[in-house]
Specification:
With 371 residues, the chain is of the alpha/beta class. Helices cover 43% and strands 16% of the residues. The chain has a 6-stranded parallel β-sheet with strand order 2-1-3-4-5-6, sandwiched between helices. A 6-stranded parallel β-sheet has the order 9-8-7-10-11-12, sandwiched between helices.
C-alpha cells in the first residue's frame, strides 16, 4: 500500500485548492493524496453546527448583521470551531499510514504532534493591518492567538508572496528558516496567444475581473472611468465576476461566466485594471499578464511583487481616483507601451508564476525537510 499524504482544505473553492492537490499527486507519484474537506465536517455534526452558530453570534454577531463577514467566514473564525477542527484532524491522522500532512490556507490547524506538517497560504489575518481599513477584516483576539499555533506547529510554512512570508516571521514570531516563499500560479488554462485580435492594444477596452465589487475597488474604477471618457470617449470598460448596477456610457457588465468565456474576454482586452483595496494574491493579475495585458492595480500587500511599476503595468495608491484615471489615460493613449508591458508581463509570469514551478519547489523543500 502506498504511503499517504493527508491534504486538508476548507473546501474545493478556491480553485487553487484542487490545483495544489493535483500538484502533490504529480510530484509525489509514490504516494496517495487523501483529500479531507473540512467544510463537510459540520454537516455530519449537528452539535458542532449548533454550538458553532452560538459562538458566531457571540464573537461576530454585529459584524455578520452589518455584512462585514459572511456566516461561513465567521463560523470558521471562532475559537470553538478552530479547536474542534484541530481535534477532528488529530483523530483522523492518528489512524496512521501518513508520511506527512499538508494544509491549504491558514484558517485552521490540521497538524498532529510527531507527524511532519506543511502549510501553504496566501495570507495571514494580521497582514490585514497593512491595508487601508484593514482592521475591519481582523478576527477576534482569541482566534488570532490560535492562529499563531498554525505556523508554529508546521515544519515549513509556504507562502504565495514575500509580503506574507514577512508577516509570518515578523507578526507571528516564526523562525525565518521555517517560512518559504514559493509563489503560486494562475487558474485559467494556459493561454493560446495565436490569432490575437489585430490591434487589441489600440482598442481601448479596459477589463475588470472580480467578485467583490467594493473590496476590489470597483466604485473607484467606475469613477476613474468617467474621467477617462473625457480624454478617450471611445474607451470601453468590461466588468466580469459581479453585477453592479451601472449606467455609464461604454460600460458592459458581464457577471459570472465560465473560464472559457473569461479567456475570450482577456483576449479582447487592451488593459486590465484591478484597483483593489485589500487582496492577498489575486490570481486574475497573473491571468491577465499571461494574456499579454498591461495591468493597472494598487501598490498594496504583495501586488508590487506581481506587477512591476513601469515595466509590466502601473501601480497606483489605493483609493486615488485621479492617479488611477491618469494611469489608464496614459496606457489607452499609447498602444505600443501597452504591448511592450504586456509582453514583459507574459514573460515574467512564465518564469515566476506557474503551478508546475510552484509544485517543484514545494516538493524539493518538503523532501529536504523529511531527509
Amino acid at each position: 500500500m502506498k504511503p499517504k499524504i493527508a491534504f486538508f482544505r476548507k473546501g474545493p473553492i478556491p480553485i487553487a485548492c484542487q490545483r495544489v492537490a493535483d500538484l502533490l499527486q504529480a510530484n509525489f507519484p509514490g504516494h496517495q493524496v487523501e483529500i479531507i474537506d473540512l467544510k463537510d465536517v459540520p454537516r455530519g455534526r449537528k452539535d458542532l453546527l449548533a454550538r458553532g452558530a452560538l459562538h458566531v453570534v457571540k464573537d461576530y454577531g454585529l459584524e455578520v448583521l452589518r455584512r462585514r463577514k459572511t456566516l461561513s467566514e465567521a463560523f470558521f473564525a471562532t475559537p470553538y470551531v478552530f479547536r474542534e477542527i484541530k481535534r477532528i484532524a488529530e483523530r483522523h491522522l492518528s489512524q496512521g499510514g501518513y508520511e506527512f500532512s499538508f494544509q491549504m490556507l491558514s484558517l485552521f490547524d490540521a497538524s498532529l504532534a510527531g507527524l511532519p506538517h506543511f502549510v501553504y497560504t496566501d495570507h495571514t489575518v494580521l497582514a490585514n493591518l497593512h491595508y487601508p481599513d484593514g482592521e475591519r477584516y481582523l478576527y477576534s483576539r482569541r482566534w488570532i492567538e490560535l492562529e499563531h499555533t498554525i505556523y508554529q506547529h508546521a515544519r515549513l510554512n509556504f507562502t504565495w508572496s514575500e509580503f506574507v512570508r514577512r508577516s509570518i516571521i515578523e507578526q507571528y514570531a516564526c523562525a525565518a528558516e521555517r517560512v518559504v516563499r514559493v509563489y503560486a500560479g494562475y487558474n485559467t488554462p494556459d493561454p493560446d496567444l495565436t490569432g490575437l485580435p489585430a490591434g487589441r492594444w489600440a482598442r481601448k477596452n479596459v477589463l475588470f475581473v472580480g467578485i467583490d465589487w467594493k473590496r476590489k475597488g470597483g466604485p473607484q474604477l467606475l469613477e476613474a472611468f468617467r474621467e477617462v471618457l473625457k480624454t478617450h470617449p471611445d474607451a470601453t470598460l468590461t466588468i466580469v465576476g459581479c453585477r453592479p448596477e451601472v449606467v455609464v456610457p461604454g460600460v458592459r457588465v458581464v457577471g459570472r461566466v465560465g473560464l472559457e468565456r473569461v479567456a475570450a474576454l482577456y483576449r479582447e482586452a487592451s488593459v486590465f485594471c484591478l484597483p483593489t483595496r485589500l487582496d492577498p494574491a489575486p490570481a486574475v493579475l497573473l491571468e491577465a499578464m499571461s494574456y499579454q495585458l498591461p495591468v493597472v492595480t494598487t501598490a498594496i500587500g504583495a501586488l508590487p511583487e506581481f506587477v512591476l511599476d513601469g515595466e509590466t503595468g502601473r501601480l497606483v495608491p489605493p483609493g486615488d481616483v485621479h492617479t488611477l484615471a491618469q494611469a489608464l489615460n496614459d496606457l489607452l493613449g499609447d498602444p505600443q507601451t501597452c504591448r511592450s508591458m504586456g509582453e514583459r508581463g507574459h514573460q515574467r509570469v512564465r518564469e515566476e508564476f506557474t503551478w508546475p514551478r510552484a509544485g517543484v519547489e514545494l516538493r524539493d523543500h518538503i523532501l529536504a525537510s523529511l531527509a
